[in-house]
Amino acid sequence: MPFSIIQYYGKSDKGRCGYCRSTSSAITHSFHSFTLIPQDYQELLDRGWRRSGHYIYKPKNITTCCPCYTIKCNSQEFKLSKSHKKILKRMNKFLRDGVRPNIEQEKEKDESFQEIVDIPQIKKAEININEIKGDKQLENPINTLMIKENQIQNTPQKASTSFQQQPNCNETNPRRKKAKQLRLERKKAKYEAKGQSYEPVGLNLAQQKTSSEKTIREFIGEVEESNCHKLKVILVPSVNSRNQDVFELYKKYQIVVHRDPPEKPTFKQFERFLVKSPLKKTANQSSPPDGFGSFHQQYWLDEKLIAVGVLDILPFCVSSVYFFYDPDYSFLSLGTYSSLRELEFTQRLSEIIPSLKYYYMGFYIHNCPKMKYKGNLSSSYLLCPETFTWVNLNDDVRNLLDIAKYQRLNRNPEVVDANEFKESNDLDGVLVLSENRYCTYKTYIQVTGDNDERSSIIEYGKLVGKSCAQRMLYLIVPD
């Protein structure tokens, strides 16, 4: 029977925080994992732990400078936002035309559009709502619409260089076709040239009428043979990424994006951090086709490696460990694009294994602007650090974290930790490993008389929970 084997380090001294850059305020508990069973690591994630190579750590949220809340997204409930669609479209356009997008121009268009959209809002703000609250006309949505239209007509229009008045379409210019319609027409023409009939792949007619929201998969599927570039995304076991090409990409990313000195990113560090993993690759009837374990999702643009996502595939989730990319392609917003691809990957896995439907994004840190972006995905949940239950990341939770950066997120006082480790009941059943033999802690004391590890084992049990404490092997190193 395989076991997870760990060596507990305990609580670290106050160290440097990688988020707020404080030099002596980060506090964590940690252990070294020699091997980890996927089920055990899934449970550890659901108690606020996270890995970096073989190093497993958990911030002490109640006292550390930047409390870290495990965040996950339900891939089956996820909905694309406007900004997500824009990034997917930008990638598709680049692949099709081979032209680098002008991000600044896109921003200018957005700002100009926002100016026009905001006009009725400005006018509306001048109206005292309390004065018209009793107006019976406002109860009729048609009357309300007419009032808004009159406001827009009477509002002076702002000048905008991005939107020029166009001639009447019927007079000189034909109405422009949408990009999707043009793509379908091009594809249809190709099939007809071969003497074949063309029917769009994907949703049937009935579904198209009832579904107005495009999925990530549909955006990704907009690929044509005539594209200037080909993007290929492949999944490989992490141990197969132990090569110079992947390391050079990692090194370039660390130096340019994180401004590491050139001598800092070494191959040994890269291997220890992103290649080596304690997770035992497991493949059986209940696992996905590639099994459970650690993988690299590689992004190949034509024949060039431009990005790598480090992922753990576990019984209930795909966990994002790290992501690095070629800074020369930052105009494609690869960080966000990769998270959408990883979400879509999770959706595909959930079709095979329904319980594997969550996408874990690591830690959400509310007081760190660089890490708050993780809360932008719809259907996201935060792990309560006291009850270890999941709470929807909504405005109420955000307001709560605005008041104080550490919070018990589950506000129901009756909810408790269902997997709580209790010293009086559970200590004797903790599994320990000593001199290549394992047994319960009770048996170990009876045989050796050594009780020196008692306080550390109690602390460890409370942190990992009862089930992991009585299933993983706690290594006792002889003096």
What is this structure's SSE topology?
Elements: E1 5-11, E2 28-35, H1 38-45, E3 50-52, E4 55-59, E5 69-74, H2 82-97, H3 103-117, H4 119-125, H5 129-132, H6 141-154, H7 179-193, H8 205-210, H9 216-220, E6 231-237, H10 244-256, H11 267-275, E7 293-301, E8 304-313, E9 317-325, H12 334-352, E10 358-364, E11 380-383, E12 390-392, H13 395-403, H14 423-426, E13 431-434, E14 437-440, H15 441-448, H16 454-464, H17 466-469, E15 473-475
Parallel strand pairs: 1-15, 9-10, 13-15
Antiparallel strand pairs: 1-2, 2-4, 3-4, 5-10, 5-11, 6-7, 7-8, 8-9, 11-12, 13-14
Description:
The structure is a single chain. The chain has about 475 residues and is of the alpha+beta class. Helices cover about 35% and strands about 20% of the residues. The chain has helices at about 40-45, 80-95, 105-115, 120-125, 130, 140-155, 180-195, 205-210, 215-220, 245-255, 265-275, 335-350, 395-405, 425, 440-450, 455-465, 465-470; strands at about 5-10, 30-35, 50, 55-60, 70-75, 230-235, 295-300, 305-315, 315-325, 360-365, 380-385, 390, 430-435, 435-440, 475. An eight-stranded mixed β-sheet has the order 6-7-8-9-10-5-11-12, sandwiched between helices. A seven-stranded mixed β-sheet has the order 3-4-2-1-15-13-14. A hairpin with a 2-residue loop joins strand 3 and strand 4. The longest helix is centred in the last third of the chain and has 19 residues, at about 335-350. It is elongated and about 85 Å long. The chain starts with a strand and ends with a strand. About 30% of the residues are buried.
